[in-house]
Write a structure and sequence with these properties.
- The protein has about 475 residues and is an alpha/beta fold.
- Bound molecules: adenosine-5'-triphosphate.
- Adenosine-5'-triphosphate binds next to α8, α14 and α16.
- The site of adenosine-5'-triphosphate has 18 residues, from α8, α14 and α16.
- It comes from Geobacillus kaustophilus GBlys.
- Keywords: ATP-binding, Nucleotide-binding, Phosphoprotein, Transcription, Transcription regulation.
């Protein structure tokens, strides 16, 4: 039992909820506009609110934000029509517990949702979410962005909307897609993945749509496509950005109408496959560059999930490592030094690269030690990157002048990564890197000024307001000591 607020300008929706909710012993207040909303939340305290995203005088998203400010414990569900699903997904990101689509065609599901929200249900459903994610090998630790991402993925899994997953290579796009499939109503139907970049255009189209006998050389008999096989299931289109423009047109048609034609065929077929697409390139940028269709992106990007790279969630590294150790069934563990080296690395290959590093270290260390030390890590991990890589690089003068900006950026990222993530670090080393930075800045300014004065040291020193001796010192010329 609870106090429930319903805000919708369609009066029938209000009446429907009133009937449904009061019949279940709840108290209901109805409002039909943003103005009603503000009046009602000032007068009453609510446990649950249903808010339409499109009101004549207000945006449901703004009402939601206001509700979360004035009554943070009140649960909220936004109501949407198909054209506003994107806004509803935004609402979840802003704290709505769920969204429902109008017209409501599954009343029992709605009743279950209400019961869950009015009880402590969501907690147990969160447990289910984490269990499912672990079973499917999608590990999230304490990183907030990853936790929010998982929660959003879990919520939208049950909706019939397409999903776009973006993230660098190896961040776990395919595992996340698998999680969404298993958390959806389609879990007992096929989940099929296709890499759009791995095969030729003809083969990709034949894989997706099937082909008729004789459609092309080698098509000796007819073949069902994935849209036929995965009908009612999920199709994972990996590297969608690699699909040719011709294939993109055909995909757009399936997304808009659910219809497709086999290669070499004439019959129009229907499919009810859910699409989860993934890309390691930014598709909005690909649209700008005209290699990806804007209308297709619009259709795919109803829900966009962006997986952050591993270097932005290094706090989760130990948990991932533990998971891999368990998965690889080994009693070995990593020394603290190893873990802090790993936290200083930038992981361009993300979780896949981490898995490979763990696997390699175990293979090398097995039978030799119980605690894996830095010696078992690959060379790239042995040098603390934030300090080492920058200072060890011997650069040409020209590079030094041009790369100051990149150097500063890299230096700052390195220090900030340590600041945020390291529970153990060598502060002496950090401080010495600050000195190195000072030298680097001094030298870069001198080099730039020398370039501008065509090598005239006296003029360069004057313009920098330093002595020629200091200038020579900054250039690390032997025997030059500015204090002498
Ligand atoms: N959160 C995670 N927890 C555990 N393992 C993970 C996680 N993310 C990725 N992995 C592992 O990393 C490897 C790469 O994952 P996956 O293939 O899903 O990445 P991807 O983003 O689809 O990569 P690509 O863009 O190269 O196709 C797999 O072995 C996967 O099991």
């Amino acid at each position: 039992m609870g106090n429930i607020l319903v805000i919708d300008d369609e009066r029938e929706v209000g009446t429907f909820f009133q009937h449904l909710l009061e019949g279940r012993g709840n108290k209901v207040k109805l409002g039909f506009s943003g103005e009603d909303f503000f009046q009602l939340i000032q007068q009453y305290k609510f446990d649950l609110a249903f808010i339409d995203v499109k009101l004549p005088d207000a945006n449901g998203l703004n009402l939601l934000k206001q509700l979360k400010r004035s009554c943070p414990s009140c649960k909220a569900v936004v109501m949407t029509g198909y054209s506003t699903v994107k806004t509803a997904v935004e609402a979840i990101k802003h704290g709505a517990n769920d969204y429902i689509e109008k017209p409501f065609d599954d009343i029992e599901q709605l009743e279950r949702l209400i019961d869950e929200l009015l009880s402590d249900g969501p907690l147990s459903s969160q447990d289910d979410m984490y269990k499912l994610a672990e079973t499917l090998g999608f590990i999230v630790g304490t990183n907030k962005e990853m936790n929010d991402l998982l929660k959003l993925a879990y919520k939208i899994a049950k909706k019939n909307v397409n999903v776009l997953i973006e993230g660098e290579t190896g961040t776990g796009k395919e595992v996340l897609a698998h999680f969404i499939h298993n958390a959806s109503m389609r879990y007992d139907q096929p989940f099929i993945g296709v890499n759009c970049g791995a095969v030729s255009e003809t083969l990709l189209e034949s894989e997706l749509f099937g082909h008729e006998k004789g459609a092309f050389t080698g098509a000796v008999k007819e073949k069902k496509g994935i849209f036929e096989i995965a009908n009612r299931g999920t199709l994972f289109l990996d590297e969608i950005g690699e699909a040719s423009l011709a294939t993109q047109v055909k995909l757009l048609r399936v997304l808009e109408t659910g219809e497709y034609i086999r290669v070499g065929g004439e019959t129009i077929r229907k499919t009810n496959t859910r699409i989860i697409a993934a890309s390691h390139v930014n598709l909005a940028k690909a649209v700008e560059e005209k290699t990806f269709r804007e209308d297709l992106l619009y259709r795919l990007d109803v829900v966009k999930l962006t997986i952050p790279p591993l270097r932005e969630r290094l706090e989760d590294l130990p948990i991932l490592i533990d998971y891999f150790l368990k998965k690889l069934n080994t009693p070995l563990s990593f020394s603290e030094d190893c873990i802090s080296r790993m936290k200083q690395y930038h992981w361009p290959g993300n979780v896949r690269e981490l898995y490979n590093v763990v696997k390699r270290a175990i293979t090398l260390a097995e039978g030799e030690t119980e605690v894996i030390t830095v010696d078992y890590l690959p060379e790239k991990l042995k040098v603390p990157l934030h300090l080492g890589q920058v200072s060890n690089n011997k650069r040409s003068t020209k590079d030094e002048v041009e790369d100051l900006e990149a150097y500063l950026q890299k230096w700052m990222n390195g220090v900030l990564a340590l600041w945020k993530n390291s529970d153990r670090l060598d502060l002496e080393q950090v401080i010495s890197s600050v000195k190195e930075l000072e030298t680097k800045i001094g030298r870069s300014f001198v080099m730039k000024m020398l370039k501008e004065t065509l090598g005239n040291r006296k003029e360069a020193a004057e313009r920098l307001n330093i002595s020629v001796r200091t200038l020579r010192y900054l250039l690390k010329e032997k025997g030059a000591d500015p204090k002498a």
